[in-house]
Amino acid sequence: xxxxxxxxxxxxxxxxxxxxxxxxxWGMVDFHLNIYAPFEYDGxxxxxxxxxxAKKGDKWGFLDASGKEVIPLRxxxxxxxxxxxxxxxxxxxxxxxxxxGNELWPCIYKYIGRLKTGQxxxxxxxxxxxxxxxxxxxxxxxxxxxxxxxxxxxxxEHNGYHGLIDLTGKLVVPAVYEDVAVFxxxxxxxxxxxxxxxxxxxDSNGRELISCQYEKIFDAFDAIKEMLQNQRKTQTx
Length: 237
Known about the structure:
The protein is mostly beta strands. The protein has 2 domains: 3-167, no CATH class; 178-237, no CATH class. 8% of the residues lie in helices and 57% in strands. Strand 7 (59-63) and strand 8 form a beta hairpin.
């Protein structure tokens, strides 16, 4: 049988499984059109770690490769599995489940975001904290926002001002800047910072390289690179 003859839409969700839409509903088939999940879903999405998110109406859960609903469709939204866990949302509250549907984090948080380091940015009420997957505190709920700015630094906001913390939650750059950002060329680990509307630059530990005196930081970047290159030359034996 030719799948094109029966489908309204189709896309591959794993190496051996395809999501197919027929008569307005989605199911799961293999290359031989053997049906693994019936055509009764409003959406079936890409598999990650062997599980595909699926929804009926406004409820989400997960299917395995056999089409079994291994995690019941009861969540407002679910996110792809990563390292054996999925962030889930239920009635505007976030939690985390494992592959068996066990709630590792109950759905009581305003927000949970997975950072590139694998750590979690978690919002409880108004403020954010930094945690591990097993709920070990890295830094308490004390910041208005936490955002991964580079490989080893997080941008934090406190009382409307920005600073940097490291992966252990230690504050390495006090929250005294209106803005902190990375240069497009991040070779030297330099951050551009804004104070009183003017831009300067610091290193990853907050050492001032260029005072905040420029309307546009691009005016200073070449000077910073030249300074660092000269420092390296003088330090070379």
